[in-house]
Design goal:
Strand content: 5-15%
Strand order of the largest sheet: 1-2-8-5-3
CATH superfamily: Cytochrome P450
Number of domains: 1
Structural class: alpha+beta
Number of strands: 12
Helix content: 40-55%
Bound molecules: protoporphyrin IX containing FE
CATH topology: Cytochrome p450
Length: 447
């Protein structure tokens, strides 16, 4: 991008305290919309001493996430919430350490491995769907979470952990909820203070550490590749320095993959069913595509014949991106198209706002999976659609997520249609991920 003379970033003149308080702690989507309404491409505001810069133009986003990515770190606010749990795993590590971690974790996500995970995905999805009944009202977001949690537990920790996989899941879910709560409250009690709540949090982390470190020790002793992510992480060797990961690194990556990997996919699918339940025509088209396969159990090999199922999921990720906000902090002053973003500022990129820009997605509020047909998808401008981020920190699990959702969407559509059980619209709950507030109640119809 060519640089012109330094020009001021348009600022948003709203009264800052109210906005900061309500926006950061209560209504982040409203904050994003209001901040972005002033200037659709780049706008700044201040939060106490710090500058907040919202960037909402694909070319500028490309600079932050790709071209000048090495000048940005994750913001310290983001680290504050999740560091106690995720340590120095992929989501939070920076610079050379991040590059090395990424090389070491990559083998767990190559195509051959994802083929193995696909079997786990169909097995667990089918088990959960088999519990559903004709005419029943269920919270589809709860069911999607059950599916992705079961898949995450099995693909990461393998079968032999048995009951412990459940304990790990429970503790991680509790800690995830704790991190969400931290976003809701304006004043934070440091985790080191011995409040009853903090004691529970620390005890959950200690329990998880004990289980995971013991599993690591057992796997190290046996050195066999059991095919789950944990054993792949243990066997990983860096091509550059030949070294592997320490136990602490394996622990941090396992926690990161587990937490980054299940709630995002589950929320994306929950929003997708919410949209489908309101669009019976689109639901029927999806079912017709799946019906053409007959009643066989859907497998990875069938996915190329189910393009519409994937389009539906991608369009849901456009309207309700689970990672609705990405934040960065420049480690030096950065220039983008003549705008200077000062070292230490909080840079916000919101896939939620970006995906609703009319110039890239005509009639942006309309649910239209045809935007992602093979032909139409090519004309979406680079960085205008960012559910998985971009650049060196792009989601490492994006193929995993797309295959998991593609399979689950087709498997559900093969057996059930659904309509909304309640007439009130479902509200967004923008915490660490963009959740449907109170769940999505649907009435099932067996096909
Ligand atoms: C629909 C589901 C998913 C969505 C929307 C999603 C979204 C994202 C986004 C936007 C980022 C980049 C964050 C940033 O740049 O600040 C990211 C990073 C990451 N995701 Fe995902 N993700 C999904 C599923 C998964 C799955 C299934 C896994 C693992 C099994 C996973 C593991 C990770 C990890 C480890 C990172 C950090 C990568 C790095 O910084 O190098 N994600 N994800």
């Amino acid at each position: 991008m060519t640089t012109t003379a330094v020009r001021p970033i348009p600022s948003n003149p709203d009264p800052i305290w109210m906005r900061a308080y309500r926006g950061i702690f209560w209504d982040r989507i409203k904050l994003l919309k209001r901040t972005g309404s002033r200037d659709p491409n780049i706008v700044s505001t201040t939060l106490g001493e710090r500058e907040l810069v919202l960037i909402n133009r694909p070319e500028y986003i490309h600079e932050v996430l790709v071209e000048q990515a090495d000048k940005f770190h994750k913001s310290k606010e983001f680290k504050f919430y999740v560091k106690p749990l995720l340590g120095n795993g992929l989501l939070l590590s920076e610079g050379e350490e991040h590059k090395r971690n990424r090389r070491l974790v990559a083998p767990a996500f190559i195509h051959r491995r994802i083929r193995d995970y696909a079997e786990v995905m169909t097995e667990y999805t089918s088990r959960i769907i088999s519990e559903w009944k004709d005419g029943e009202v269920i919270d589809i977001s709860r069911e999607m979470m059950r599916i992705t949690l079961a898949i995450a537990g099995k693909t990461l920790f393998g079968s032999e952990v048995g009951g412990e996989a459940d304990e790990i899941k429970q503790k991680l879910t509790f800690l995830n909820r704790y991190a969400d709560e931290q976003l809701r409250i304006p004043i934070h009690v440091p985790l080191s203070w011995p409040t009853p709540r903090n004691n529970r949090v620390r005890s959950a982390i200690a329990t998880l550490d004990a289980i995971i470190y013991r599993m690591i020790a057992e796997r190290r002793a046996s050195t066999t590749d059991t095919g789950d992510l944990l054993s792949i992480l243990l066997l990983a060797r860096d091509e550059d320095d030949g070294g592997g990961m320490t136990d602490k690194q394996v622990r941090d990556e396992a926690m990161t993959i587990f937490l980054a990997g299940h709630e995002t996919t589950s929320n994306g699918m929950s929003w997708m069913w919410y949209l489908l339940a309101q669009h019976p025509d689109i639901q029927s088209r999806l079912q017709a595509e799946v019906r053409a396969l007959g009643s066989k159990r859907i497998a990875l090999e069938d996915l190329p014949r189910l393009p519409y199922a994937l389009q539906v999921f991608k369009e849901a990720l456009r309207l309700y991106p689970p990672a609705y906000i990405l934040t960065r902090t420049p480690t030096e002053d950065v220039f983008i198209d003549g705008y200077r973003i000062k070292k230490g500022a909080i840079v916000m990129i919101s896939p939620y706002l970006l995906h609703r820009k009319e110039e890239n997605f005509p009639e942006p509020e309309k649910f239209d999976p045809d935007r992602f047909s093979a032909e139409n998808e090519k004309s979406i401008p680079r960085q205008a659609y960012l559910p998985f981020g971009a650049g060196p920190r792009v989601c490492i699990g994006n193929q995993f997520a797309l295959i998991e959702a593609h399979l689950a969407t087709a498997m559900v559509a093969q057996q059930f249609s659904m309509e909304l059980a309640d007439s009130e619209p479902v509200e967004m709950e923008p915490l660490i991920t963009l959740r449907p507030k109170g769940g999505v109640r649907v009435r099932l119809k067996h096909l």
